[in-house]
Amino acid sequence: MAHHKILTENVHYADQHEIGRYEERGGYQAIRRILNSDPLSIMEEVKTSGLRGRGGAGFPTGMKWSFVPRNTGKPIYLLCNADESEPGTFKDRLLLERDSHLLLEGMMIAAYALGSHWTAIYIRGEYAHPAACLAKAINEAYQRGYLGQGIFGSDYGLDIVLHRGAGAYICGEETGLIESLEGYRGQPRLKPPFPAVVGLYDCPTVVNNVETLAALPWIIKNGAAAYAQIGTEKSKGTKLMSVSGHVKNPGVYEIDLGYPLLDFINNECGGVREGHSLKAVIAGGSSVPVLRADELAGVLLDYESLKTAGTMLGSGGMIVLDDSTDMVEVVANLQHFYSHESCGQCTPCREGGHWVEKVVKRIYEGQGFPTDLMLLDSVCSQIAGHTICPFGDALVTPVLSFIKKFRNEFDEKIMAALDRHLV
Amino acid sequence: MSLENLKAAEDKLAQIVKRYPNKRSALMPALYLGQEAVGYVSAEVISWVATKIGVSSAEVKEVATFYTMYQQKPVGKYHLQVCRTLSCHLAGAKPLVNFLKEKLAVDAHQVTADGLFSYEEVECLGSCGTGPVVQINDVYFERMDSEKLASLLERIKTELPDLRYSTLKDELGVGLADMPRSQLVNLKEGKHGAS
Lengths: 423, 195
What we know:
The complex is a heterodimer of chains A (about 425) and B (about 200).
Chain A: H1 19-24, H2 29-34, H3 39-49, H4 61-66, E1 77-82, H5 91-98, H6 100-114, E2 118-123, H7 128-143, E3 159-164, H8 174-181, E4 205-209, H9 210-214, H10 216-222, H11 224-228, E5 238-245, E6 251-256, E7 259-260, H12 261-268, E8 278-282, E9 291-292, E10 300-301, H13 303-308, E11 317-322, H14 327-341, H15 347-364, H16 372-383, H17 391-405, H18 407-422
Parallel strand pairs in A: 1-2, 1-4, 2-3, 5-11
Antiparallel strand pairs in A: 5-6, 7-10, 8-9, 8-11
Helix pairs in contact in A: 3-6, 5-6, 5-7, 14-15, 14-17, 15-16, 15-17, 16-17, 17-18
Chain B: H1 2-8, H2 10-19, H3 27-38, H4 43-53, H5 57-64, E1 78-83, H6 86-90, H7 94-104, E2 117-122, E3 134-136, E4 139-141, H8 146-159, H9 181-184
């Protein structure tokens, strides 16, 4: 099946990051077109397109914008979330490195629609090369008068500031990102109030993912109706999938939403490695529940179908596991990640995360006890839903879903340990 | 030496502060500048940042210790970060760490006697499709194995390339972005040059 190329149309050009080349290929046309129109009409256009947040939550973008009060007398801030840190996710990096101006134009459109004059890109600290690409693109845009006072000769002024994080997964959570950008530890805030009302410096703020913003130039150029025709009834448009693990061709793919998951793995990604069979798929980044191979028939890559299947599309960071995989090892690896990345603010997550990691690790190392799975269940039930941000829920997802789906592998390790104790 | 470097970073910091509606937002960039100048976030860097941003040293330390990329003690001229998270793990990250431990004969976070190398395991670097990845200073080296890593270490030893997008340069990484990735990791032809 031929998928639409809305985000990745030009990423294969080695010179696409240069502003001149970007413009030759149709860049900066969408923003020029809207600069004299009513900002609210742009917001309506985005609403009509059905575009949903591509960072993981899938919240309708236009609706998120509509929560911003415009008459408070305070500045409105637009922030681009380029903190891409969800294990298995490397889709934004492709756009940041290969088509930086596409993101900048998307930000210009969003900022104009929101009435924002100061915006920032929060990029994870490890992305030094993508940050360098962006810095260059931002400089080029300023030199041409596409950023700064009166962009493209209009009376609308806009600044984009590049802000590097410094190694903290939690800064991908939007209020953690805001705290970090304000110069504090990236510890998420209690919601409500939501950032749309009380965000950066207590002002109305919208945080959008790179991929979400990068879709805007196409939507403006081709119309919301054209975008809404792609995908399914509720999951419209295209999605970047970053695929890793045991497939022949890992990488970033742009697919029309609603594409069958198994077709995607077999046709686009070349299937699993030679001589192996598919065992399981983590469809949308490490924080979503795992699906066994026998549960994948008929599952489509869109928000609703994956929800029905008991998981989520998330960030689109797909990790494919073949029959050589030790599932207890996978969970031990992931729980180390989650205990390391807890921001430490809420006790259930800070303390519980370490306990979960320790117990899974001892099962993996053949030191588990028969009561350990009950213990894990108990600890997890005291974390999920008891924290300020969704990290607590994300933390318990791998361990609980893998135990549910691959219970026998945990039992086998625990029984083997028991035999050893008895001997 | 480090005091001079910090002094040299002051103009740069003044420019950065101007970008933000609120001075405190420049705290993290200031920590980067300090770390770049001194090599790690020393007590000197903490108090420099505190003075420049206008907050207490305790507040700066609170931030500096939250983020993993601010080094709390000196690291090697080349600091290797091996991604240990799932996709890299499946692709063979653990053997790389074992190799480094044996080859460099130091534990994680320790510096080799010649001051050249240190290493640590880090969480997902966003290189899942091209793992396992080793980040050396600012540059990603992807699809690594022990053999490639061994020859890379040898080349670094002899060529001493600059693998940093220096935050002290005019703008972060400007100029480097022009180079395709393949050249970035090609030490011999890379414009980083030998220092």
